[in-house]
Amino acid sequence: MAQVEIINVTKRFGKTTALDNVNLDIKDNEFFVLFGPAGAGKTTLLNTIAGIYLPEEGMVKFDGEVMNQVDASHRNVAMVFENYALYPNQTVYENIASPLRSPLYKQDNETIDREVRRVASLLRIDGLLDRLPHQISNGQKQRVAIGRAIIRTPRVLLMDEPLAHLDAKLRNYMRSELKEMQSMFESTVIYVTHDYLEAISLGDRIAIIKEGKIVQVGTRDEIYYTPRNEFVAALVGEPEINIIDGTLVKENGTSYIKLEMKEELVPLPDNHPLTKTLCEYDTNEFHVGFRPQSIDYTFEYKEGYLKGSVYNFESLGNKAVLTVKVGDTFLRTLAPYDLRVQLDIDIYIDAPITKGLFFDSQTTELIGSYDDAKVNGNGTQE
């Protein structure tokens, strides 16, 4: 186990900056997730921690020790890849045992046998030890790859989208298994993914990365309820958050927000710190984000609700996404999967302003939210 510090790390490939002044402090024995779109720099950062790449600037530290000049083979780091990378001509037993037969970590046969069977039992593949890789399923192959990585108890376990090749059912199963196993790994785990569900279900903390820069680090609640900007807000949520234009209006001592899809002015809560912040802002143009589950709907007229039409209905198994068109604005909301609905029929929706996230229209940075009770799970807003 190790505390991993990434300090001002920059990595370039020619004229392309893959990592741009990255700073992270990953706790000992933490399950830490790197989450972002393809090409964001996740794998490059993983390889830099492993020592496969050396940064042009900055330092990588394990437990306070600078690792920049330590060869990858001596960092005691193990990696699990997307493609398993098993030896096809060796049994499951020999694949798992291979690190303990290497010159650097060589052990006697009795120790190897004991450790292989311990790890195989932990991963529930002890009945597969005599099989070759082509004789087992993809999920079992992934367990073998994990077993090979953890058998020598590495200080840091790096996992690069290890579930990407699995089907949806097996991926869901392996997510819960990985979280359960993590307490037994006895390693700090750094896990790379572009899958939102993997990130929030596995990570003790999550780092959002975009174009080589760390955008935000926090728990799943911190990132979901207080996203640093619109990019994070759109990335963490399924279906994606609705972002609409809003204009601050002051009339007769009362502050209102004029939303792009609504003619009426919406009064803002009096004596709330966010209202005061918005009124003192250097612009009256904002972006307001509404999570789909915050938008209510009905098929019968209801006072205060906006009239729109059903644009699309997408069933997703145990839930559905209902897209409503109000004027030129499209809003996504959640609906029961078995809802019977026809396209283009009238529908009435309500987006309570107290459920909105307010963003700067120029920088897209978060200004705040009226729904303070859900921030950080303890009712306080950072």
Your description of this structure?
The strands form four sheets. A six-stranded mixed sheet has the order 6-7-8-3-9-10, sandwiched between helices. Strands 13-12-11-14-20-21 form a six-stranded antiparallel sheet. The protein has helices at residues 42-50, 92-97, 109-122, 138-150, 168-185, 196-202, 220-225, 230-235, 273-280; strands at residues 4-13, 16-26, 31-35, 57-62, 65-66, 77-80, 156-160, 188-193, 205-210, 213-218, 242-251, 254-259, 266-267, 285-290, 296-298, 306-315, 320-326, 329-335, 346-350, 357-360, 366-369. The radius of gyration is 25 Å and the shape is elongated. Helices cover 23% and strands 33% of the residues. It has two domains: 4-234, P-loop containing nucleotide triphosphate hydrolases (Rossmann fold), CATH 3.40.50; 241-377, Nucleic acid-binding proteins (OB fold (Dihydrolipoamide Acetyltransferase, E2P)). Mean pLDDT is 91; it is low at 373-382. With 382 residues, the chain is of the alpha+beta class. The two termini are 30 Å apart.
Topology, element by element:
Blueprint: E1 4-13, E2 16-26, E3 31-35, H1 42-50, E4 57-62, E5 65-66, E6 77-80, H2 92-97, H3 109-122, H4 138-150, E7 156-160, H5 168-185, E8 188-193, H6 196-202, E9 205-210, E10 213-218, H7 220-225, H8 230-235, E11 242-251, E12 254-259, E13 266-267, H9 273-280, E14 285-290, E15 296-298, E16 306-315, E17 320-326, E18 329-335, E19 346-350, E20 357-360, E21 366-369
Parallel strand pairs: 3-8, 3-9, 6-7, 7-8
Antiparallel strand pairs: 1-2, 1-4, 4-5, 9-10, 11-12, 11-14, 12-13, 14-20, 15-19, 16-17, 16-19, 17-18, 20-21
